[in-house]
Amino acid sequence: MNAQLSHAEAQEHSSSQGQPPAPSHGSINQRVMIALAVCMALQMTSFVIILPLFARRFSEFGAGVESLGLSAMAYALTSTLAAPFMGALADRFGRRRVVLASLATYILVFTGYLLASSAPVFILLRAFAGAFTAGLIPAVMGSVADLAPMDRRAQWIGVVNGGASIGWIAGPILGGLLYDNWGYGIALIVSISMGTAALLTALFTIPETSRGSGRLAGGIQGQRVFRFSDWRSSLHLFRNTLPRSLSSFAVLLTISFAVMFAWAFIEPKFMFYAYDELGWSSSMLGLVMSTYGIAMTFGEFFLSHLSDRLGRRPVIVCGLLFFAAQFIGLTCFQNYLWLAAAFIIAGLGNALFDPALSASILDIAPAEHQSRILGIKSTAASLGNILGPALVVLFTPVIDARGIFLTATGIVCVSIVISLAAQTDLAALWKGKMSIEADRSVHLNKPSSSENFTRK
């Protein structure tokens, strides 16, 4: 790929940065992406171990749905603000640095969760985590984009996401068992240990893959002066970092927002609904979440290539239909096995639409700004994570649990309609007729905004 470092460049960069050289051929590329998948598996397991326990912890603090919703909103708000900047840092200074910094932040925050003595402190820690880990997914996906050929992009995104999905298998059930048998503290210690393993894996196995890393500070300062001295040129510079088809990009961002909003809208209520109304234990809740992870992992490893072959749009639409099954199941059923089956279908849906959606965005993103564009995608998703918990806090006194689950179903249905009503250029992209190579040639052949400013 054009974005891949050559062997000579890799050696030069590694000698100056003190890190492993970037991969230079296909077999090494695959080993690096498998290492990324392993790293994401460890980190997601670490995170999801404690995810089902947040409601329990807030109950110990004497807090309820509102505080849990505020903590989720705090995480999402800081992620929203930070994601584009963290993605830009990954493009400018390298994917590896952002990955390592994000993983180290997780370890610090999990340690804080262990020591937190009140709900406000816990909420502040989640806000801190959102700000300083927002670059992890954009940086990891940027590395995949650097290494994977375009005709296998969704497949490799699925493989790396599949590693993260392993965390949804092991994490919830492990967290539930640890809490039920030994309490919250042991669960956090295991989570911190897994996060440390993820950091060490990244440190010793993941090289830098971006050509844009390690630019001189003088160039950064010059761009800062440029942005503040001429806002019109600054807007032009920002526009050059975006995909050529803004309407297509807007549709993809809207879908990202809708699916995250739907889940964030039900999450706080679902946790307490499972414990208080369905009578589940932490282990039972963890097992249902694990079945979701099993289905998602299977789909991402074995089905994510479908959008490379069949086109992006049909796979996204099918995935969204399956994804809605969890909300429909919660609306209609209380039987444990039926709900587990609904979450299995939803996990398969997530495995279908998410790699296809990310690949669609990478297909139209300028090669030198892919992490930044993925950071904007993360911002759209984080907006959903902000508004979802905020609205559920407002609606909880007037809408029962089934009303909340039914509302989430409707939101996913709206995103399906948006997908089907997409403009012609996006439909062409999803059929595989739009090439990123054309986009690259435009950016390579025209002068940059900073050059235009210098000439003026």
Q: What structural class results from the helix and strand content?
A: mainly alpha
CATH architecture: Up-down Bundle
Percentage of residues in helical conformation: over 70%
CA-to-CA gap between the ends?
A: 34 Å
Global outline: globular
Helical segment tally?
Answer: 22
* Largest sheet report: none
CATH-defined fold name:
Growth Hormone, Chain: A
| Overall number of strands | 0
Kindly estimate the percentage of residues that lie in beta strands according to DSSP: under 5%
**Could you tell me the mean pLDDT?**
78
Radius of gyration (Å): 22 Å
Number of domains: 1
- In CATH's first tier, which class applies? Mainly Alpha
Q: List unreliable stretches of 5+ residues.
A: 1-25, 213-231, 430-456
Q: What letter string, H or E per element, gives the SSE order?
A: HHHHHHHHHHHHHHHHHHHHHH
> How would you name the CATH homologous superfamily?
MFS general substrate transporter like domains
Description:
This protein has one domain: Growth Hormone, Chain: A. Helix content is 82%, strand content 0%. The chain contains 22 helices and no strands. Helix 4 runs antiparallel to helix 18. The longest helix has 32 residues. The protein is globular, with a radius of gyration of 22 Å.
